[in-house]
Amino acid sequence: MIRKQRFNVVDSCIMVFIIGVAITCLVPFLYMIALSLSSNNAIISQKVSLWPVEFTLETYKTILSDVSMIYTLGYTIVLTIFYTIFCMFLTICAAYPLTKKRLKGRSFVLTVLVITMYFSGGLIPSYILVKNLDLMNTMWSLILPGAMSVFNMIILKTFFASLPESLEESASIDGCNELGILLRIVLPLSMPSIATLSLFYAVDRWNGFQDALFYITDKNLYPMQLKLYQIITANQQLDTQQGEGSVGAFIVPESLKAASVMFATVPILVVYPKLQKYFVEGVMTGAIKG
């Protein structure tokens, strides 16, 4: 009875801790929603907490008033999907062969890949390379420079290596070649890790901003983050022109910033629950086997 009571106390403490962490993560999100639905005057007066004050949808109307916003949203979704598929293809093609001990030069190739995690050419050489390859103002400038993460490749390689070799040997005896083993045996068993890394790649591309700022000047090729940045910048310039001689009128509406954050965050929040099962399973598997 005493042991059961002690267990209940510990269980309750853990539950309270988890609830506290959840609230800590949820409060900033609710605050951003409240900001995005509140008037600029209420925000400047610091009246907004977790509930909208002077409810308004003007900030979302400002974002959607740009007729190209829907096109940008669709383009960014296509870009993110293609980027994720392309990156996972390269990651799998690099990770699977490196698990084979019979691959000559495997250690050397892995060492060269790991070195790139610590050293890079830098921003200016990367820009010159993209420019000399005629990738400026193309979708490829947002895909090729970050086409494969060595860190993600090592994670996937570790997972591949943890699979029982007997499965591949059985498939090989049945006449299955290396490609068939990869497609029919390895990949189906690796879906948790693949889904987890795909989510990492998708979030990285969806939130990508700096590379687009450097390589893209064509407005038709702006990804979502750069488009929202341009809207905020244009609004700031407009407020500066209209607010000359008046205090505070030049401040960029914080509600517009919050609405931009929400507009960029919601699509990822919609996708994440569909991958949550694989994500949790992949993290737990990596924790046990890694």
- Uncertain spans: 244-251, 286-290
Integer tally of domains? 2
Q: Mean pLDDT, as a whole number?
A: 81
| Fraction in helix | over 70%
CATH structural architecture of the largest domain? Orthogonal Bundle
Radius of gyration: 25 Å
Describe, in short, the structure shown.
Helix content is 72%, strand content 0%.
Account of the protein in words:
The protein has two domains: 1-56; 60-289, MetI-like (MetI-like fold). Residues 244-251 and 286-290 have low confidence and may be disordered. By secondary structure, the protein is mostly helical. Helix 4 (69-95) packs across helix 7 (150-162) and helix 10 (191-206) runs antiparallel to helix 13. It contains 13 helices and no strands. Helices cover 72% and strands 0% of the residues. The chain has helices spanning 2-36, 40-44, 58-64, 69-95, 106-118, 123-132, 150-162, 165-173, 178-189, 191-206, 210-215, 224-242, 254-289. The longest helix has 36 residues, at 254-289.
Q: Top keywords for this entry?
A:
single chain; 290 residues; mainly alpha; MetI-like fold; 2 domains; 13 helices; 0% strand; globular; disordered C terminus
Secondary structure: elements and pairs:
Layout lengths: L1 H35 L3 H5 L13 H7 L4 H27 L10 H13 L4 H10 L17 H13 L2 H9 L4 H12 L1 H16 L3 H6 L8 H19 L11 H36 L1
Helix pairs in contact: 1-13, 3-13, 4-7, 4-10, 8-9, 10-13, 12-13
